[in-house]
Amino acid sequence: MGCILTFFTFLFPRAAFFVIWMARPSLVNDAFDTFLIPFFGLFIFPYTCLVYVVLHEQGGVSGAEWIWIAVAVVLDVGNMAGGFVQRGEYASRYPPPWVKG
Q1: Treating both helix axes as pointing N-terminal to C-terminal, what angle do 46-56 and 36-43 enclose, rounded to 10 degrees?
Q2: Taking the CB of residue 18, how many other CB atoms lie within 10 A of it?
């Protein structure tokens, strides 16, 4: 069961974070002081928020746990960059109608 949840988390980080937030809101409330950070994190940095909530559960983030958060930030930035690259490739195949050629 744990492997299925881990696989689900890697495929759908926003859904996994949302499920944790709805199932155990005290975890998210303990990790963040305000509603805005997890709300925007749900859309912008889902891996980072998910990892921070999971690591904060054991009493706060300290020491080597920041490495996991850095890995999550890299995953989030890579995910966003991949979307920008895909959008650029799609746009380059279809020039705007005012460009003749």
Answers
A1: 130
A2: 15
Domain residue spans in the chain? Answer: 2-89
Q: Between vectors from CA 71 to CA 57 and to CA 25, what angle results, nearest 5°?
A: 30
pTM: 0.74
**Residue 35 structure tokens:** 């509603």
Q: Which residues contact 68 (CB under 8 A, 6 or more apart)?
A: 51, 55
Task: Give the pLDDT confidence score for residue 66 in this predicted structure.
Answer: 93
Is residue 20 within 8 A of residue 28, CB to CB? The reply is yes
Angstrom distance (rounded) from CA 39 to CA 45: 10
Helix (H) and strand (E) counts for the chain?
6, 0
* Residue 59 φ/ψ, nearest 5 degrees: 105, 25
